[in-house]
Automatic annotation (TrEMBL):
Matches recorded under PANTHER family: STRESS RESPONSE PROTEIN NHAX, UNIVERSAL STRESS PROTEIN UP12
Keyword set, alphabetical order: Coiled coil
Origin: domain of life: Bacteria
Domain UspA: start-end pairs: 1-137
InterPro entries in the record: Universal_stress_UspA, UspA
Family: Belongs to the universal stress protein A family.
Coiled coil: 49-76
One Pfam family matching this protein: Usp
This protein's name: UspA domain-containing protein
């Protein structure tokens, strides 16, 4: 059974992420693992070790009570779940539980739960864990499977990631849209036409439709396409580039997360 890891600090954003993680778990017959990172308090150096230890124990006990309630609720819904309480950062914790599945986090405003934990962005996380990352906005309340879309500039072979997106789309109501976002001056790593033909060949049974959308800037085009097509969840793939490529054409997914108002699932492409 695959696992869905849900990072939580019990905030409104984290609770909404947990809500949708449960929906995904029910659909995919996955088990849930809640991950809570205990943030150690900043204390006066004069505070005794005994008092600090007591404070840490109380933080852990409070978190455990919240997590036990989540597991109890899951059991009532017929879901299998467990929890992890860690004093390490989120990256190290997930690396220690590097199983197949999905990592789900909440996003409040323009910051994700991960930003608070690791002082970085969710884009950085996906380069360090192998699981796909799903970011759920705090105020999102729609049907996540209503209209799924995989967006790309088609700069490299993304058949593996498209296949993963199609696995989720089988719980949807429509064919998935593959949005080919065409910039005015794209970095021509390989012919876009060739990649489209390879996609069609790789998926003879389809389950998707390809739509092209011209734009000056990838990020701008993504948001315009989301609005136009009423996308309910977006799939994107990011790829580590070498220094030269990063200077010429920074990662196309950079900057999408902060302003997104729908769930985004991010795959990390590995050569």
């Amino acid at each position: 059974m695959k696992k869905i890891f849900v990072a939580t600090d019990f905030s409104k954003g984290a609770n909404n992420a947990a809500h949708y993680a449960r929906i995904l778990a029910q659909k995919s017959q996955s088990a849930l693992t809640y991950v809570h990172i205990v943030t150690l308090p900043v204390v006066d150096p004069m505070v005794s070790a005994a008092l600090l230890s007591t404070t840490i124990d109380e933080l852990k006990a409070d978190a455990e009570e919240e997590l036990k309630n989540l597991v109890k609720e899951d059991k009532l819904q017929g879901l299998e779940s467990e929890y992890i309480i860690s004093f390490e950062d989120i990256l190290e914790t997930l690396k220690q539980h590097n199983e197949e599945g999905l990592v789900v986090v909440g996003k409040t405003g323009q910051r994700t739960f991960l930003d608070k934990l690791i002082g970085s962005t969710a884009q950085n996380l996906i380069h360090h864990v192998k699981q796909p990352l799903l970011v759920i906005p705090e105020d999102f309340t729609g049907d996540i499977f209503e209209n799924l879309c995989y967006a790309s500039k088609l700069e490299f072979d993304e058949a593996k990631e498209i296949a993963q997106a199609l696995e989720w789309n089988k719980y949807g109501k429509k064919d998935m849209i593959i949005a080919h976002i065409i910039e005015e001056f794209p970095l021509d790593i390989q012919s876009n036409t060739q990649y489209i033909q390879e996609i069609l060949k790789a998926f003879p049974e389809r389950g998707f439709i390809i739509k092209q959308y011209a734009t000056e800037v990838f990020k701008k085009g993504i948001f315009e396409f989301i609005e136009k097509e009423k996308v309910s969840m977006l799939f994107v793939t990011t790829k580590k580039r070498n220094m030269l490529e990063s200077i010429i054409d920074p990662s196309a997914t950079k900057g999408i997360l902060p302003k997104a108002n729908i769930p985004i699932m991010i795959f990390s492409h590995q050569d």
